[in-house]
Amino acid sequence: MPQQRLARPEPEIPPTRPALAEDAPRFLLLEREVEIEYRPQMLAALQSKVDACAATARGTTPVCPQCGQPMRCQDTREVSAGALRMLACPRVALPLPALPL
């Protein structure tokens, strides 16, 4: 025996929508102001950390996990998202290893 649903009466007045503020909240404005003011220092600090990581990684040569021989870089540009290749074994390409932070 199916149950019948009772019809709910529709509200006469729909709920009011919240109004948007004219300006951004003060906290957001302060946060944006500080970010703009200190952006050059943050970028300089980030660049020095990236340079330090690159300097430590530049002297190391990854080893192929399959044959154990050092891998050669396919792309020798300073900044590269290329791959390392092994020609002596079936493993053709590996992504570059992640730099430790």
End-to-end distance: 67 Å
Q: What is the succession of H and E elements?
A: HEEE
Helix residue percentage = 25-40%
Quote the beta fraction.
5-15%
Largest sheet: 3 strands, antiparallel
What structural keywords apply?
101 residues; mainly alpha; 2 domains; three-stranded antiparallel β-sheet; elongated
Quick summary:
With 101 residues, the protein is mainly α. The protein is 33% helix and 8% strand. The chain has a three-stranded antiparallel beta sheet with strand order 1-2-3, with no helix packed on it.
Explain the layout of strands and helices:
Layout: H1 26-58, E1 72-73, E2 83-85, E3 93-95
Antiparallel strand pairs: 1-2, 2-3
Description of the molecule:
With 101 residues, the chain is mainly alpha-helical. It folds into two domains: 38 residues; 35 residues. A three-stranded antiparallel sheet has the order 1-2-3, with no helix packed on it. A hairpin with a 7-residue loop joins β2 and β3. The longest helix is centred in the middle third of the chain and has 33 residues. The protein starts with 25 loop residues before the first helix and ends in a 6-residue tail after the last strand.
